[in-house]
Backbone:
């Protein structure tokens, strides 16, 4: 799979990924900003602004008009806000791609940000915040990041709080858009059944008027300082306990990131992984359990999520800690050490899942868009496969010993517990504190 990168005169980068055998195309506008660039007063503004872009423009004054135009071409429109980026995309038939460019540019450049609509949308977003609060399988991720990134803007919820959302005014959105929605801080990805020339012609036609002011570098890198286990309990009456047990890892440009990803896959990347086998199959402590990597520009973590019986959660945490330490502390060729079979299987698991995902134009767009925004280099899938294949057993073991330090373990819990005393005891016992 090949791609081309072109920078327009105004500084907007355009990534084109022609896929001539497909009848669909995904056009995505990416902005390199999210909740990480907010503060305690405007927390949630990135996400709120994302909502407002669908509420009307100077050319299409109502949300209904935007929705009807998408429906009239059988397309799909959506958007997403993360901690370091915001995206808006339209997926449609390739012969309707100009409509996608037209709509996305109109929303980006000409959003009305109507004060009445802002007040109305506050209720919608507050209900969204409450929905996630009542969905612990999703909310546990925010609880965990609030623990490990405490004191940094990465700890803040992407949607903000009911208080910050309720207090936002039209000028807050105008100021924020002016600060970050500029050509040099944005990219455009076009993946699917259109040519590079057609994509660039449309990009120049519809996005040439993007503002070109430079974005201020906030310089808010995360500094790791943890020296003791940390626990955060979000007490909530639920029939099940939801936890993430994890360790601080590295950012998107870390040289051995593929070794870390393979390590997480060996631990909990599938139904034959160590966590799944030990926690679910052998002990029946969880139905859902998985380990994954989550990375930002300069920091990340390796974490295992599990949904547990509230009466056996402590037992499960002990078992999960043991699985980390087995890998970190086992001599080579011992019964607990990583095997060659596990290493090979995990590599094929990662390559296979990436290959399957890249059958969809929206995933192809995300694959290249994320790299262009945050990585030192943009790799094709084939180049990623080669990077994965080159990872050695020594590199994976090195990362296990480096990351799985008992003093740097973190545990977030959502469940019907009055205090976190028992969980703290487990973590402290593991490090002899």
Residues:
């Amino acid at each position: 799979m090949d791609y081309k990168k072109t920078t327009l005169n105004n500084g907007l980068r355009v990534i084109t990924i022609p896929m001539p055998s497909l009848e669909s195309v995904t056009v995505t506008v990416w902005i390199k900003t999210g909740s990480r660039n907010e503060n305690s007063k405007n927390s949630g503004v990135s996400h709120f602004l994302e909502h407002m872009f669908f509420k009307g423009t100077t050319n299409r004054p109502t949300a209904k008009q935007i929705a009807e135009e998408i429906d009239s071409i059988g397309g799909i429109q959506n958007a997403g806000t993360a901690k370091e980026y915001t995206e808006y995309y339209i997926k449609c038939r390739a012969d309707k791609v100009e409509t996608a460019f037209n709509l996305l540019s109109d929303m980006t450049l000409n959003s009305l940000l109507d004060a009445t609509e802002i007040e109305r949308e506050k209720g919608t977003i507050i209900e969204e915040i409450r929905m996630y609060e009542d969905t612990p399988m999703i909310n546990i991720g925010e609880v965990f990041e609030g623990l490990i990134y405490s004191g940094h803007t990465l700890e803040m919820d992407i949607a903000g709080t009911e208080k910050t959302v309720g207090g936002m005014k039209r000028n807050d959105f105008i100021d924020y858009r002016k600060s970050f929605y500029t050509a040099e801080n944005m990219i455009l990805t076009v993946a699917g059944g259109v040519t590079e020339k057609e994509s660039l012609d449309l990009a120049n036609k519809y996005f040439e008027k993007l503002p070109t002011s430079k974005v201020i570098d906030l310089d808010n890198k995360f500094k790791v300082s943890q020296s003791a286990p940390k626990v955060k309990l979000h007490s909530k009456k639920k029939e099940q306990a939801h936890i993430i047990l994890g360790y601080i890892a590295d950012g998107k440009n870390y040289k051995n990131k593929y070794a870390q990803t393979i390590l997480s896959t060996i631990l909990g990347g599938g139904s034959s992984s160590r966590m799944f086998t030990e926690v679910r199959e052998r002990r029946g402590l969880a139905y859902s359990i998985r380990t994954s990597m989550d990375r930002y520009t300069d920091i990340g973590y390796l974490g295992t999520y599990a949904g547990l019986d509230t009466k056996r959660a402590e037992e499960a945490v002990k078992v999960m800690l043991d699985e980390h330490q087995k890998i970190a502390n086992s001599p080579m060729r011992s019964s607990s050490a990583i095997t060659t079979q596990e290493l090979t299987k995990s590599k094929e698991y990662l390559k296979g899942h990436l290959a399957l995902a890249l059958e969809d134009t929206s995933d192809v767009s995300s694959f290249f868009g994320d790299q262009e925004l945050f990585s030192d280099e943009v790799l094709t899938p084939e180049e990623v496969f080669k990077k994965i294949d080159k990872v050695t057993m020594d590199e994976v073991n090195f990362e296990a010993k480096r990351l799985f330090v008992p003093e740097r373990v973190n545990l977030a819990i959502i469940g019907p517990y009055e205090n976190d005393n028992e969980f703290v005891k487990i973590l402290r016992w593991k490090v002899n504190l």
User: Anything to note?
Assistant: The chain is about 45% helix and 20% strand. The first strand starts at residue 4 and ends at 7.
